[in-house]
Amino acid sequence: MKNLLQMLQDLVIFVPHWQQPLLIPFQVPVSLEEFRQAIHSDKNHIYKELAAIFDSIFDDEKMLRDTITHLRMEQNNITDQATVKQSQIDELIAECDELSHTLIHMTTAEEIFEHLKSIYENANKLQNVKSDYHKLIICNEDNYHEFITKFLHLADEVKIIKENYKTDFNDKLFFDLQRMMTVVNAIINIYAEFQKICAQAVHTLQTINATQKLKSLQGNESNIFKQNTLWASDSQTSHSTSATKSSIIKKALSAHSDIQCYYCKEKDHIARNCSMKQKSQQVITELTENDTSEPSADLRKE
């Protein structure tokens, strides 16, 4: 850098005096920044290319400084990570030394086994319980009461908060049961109430499934009888399911008198059962039918 400055100073000295805009006495040592500022102060732009070279040099220097700073930060980060890893290694070595020291003084295999069991069993047990809880679901043919018992036991072991019981419980239901409990899930937030209605729904679905199987077996006597039986079974299943859903919804609504209809804004019923909405739809239907059935005045004149 000093050699470059000396070369530039010599270059300026050999420029004719009438072309020298710089007023710095070059016999006095100057810094590279001072020399750069002097070049940029040239109003006649005689040293325009030289100024561009200096700008490029300073940009490269800044980039180099930034790179060095970044590398130093990365090196410090690597050093910190290495320190943390070394600390963890030291802790593990200390634990192993302590365990070895304890096991040396034990005389029987049973004593050693019980000691190791007391250290590692709890951690593995908790992990296994969490895995069992996440895998737990109820299928259509499963025993509902056994499922409830297992769910409550595992939820307590995993320390699930009470506010999440209903959500987790609903996620573990099979599809048909979830679909049947959709309305109840939307209006009931308490797990105990939700679970009680769910038990009734499970009993109803199991009864329907048993009826379907029985009718299916009876229908194997002949093709005609089989078709009639299947039709009756489907019809009965549809009516039974609709009646069951209606009864479940009515029970849920009776337990929550603060439910409000979004159509008429009145309480104690939902929009599906709103008489005002039904009347409005009936009027709209009648008006539509009248418009399509009666000819226009222009057509009657013709």
From TrEMBL:
Residues 260-276 form the CCHC-type domain. Coiled coil: none annotated. GO terms for molecular function: nucleic acid binding; zinc ion binding. Pfam families: zf-CCHC. InterPro entries: Znf_CCHC, Znf_CCHC_sf. It comes from the Eukaryota. This is CCHC-type domain-containing protein. It comes from Paracoccidioides lutzii (strain ATCC MYA-826 / Pb01) (Paracoccidioides brasiliensis).
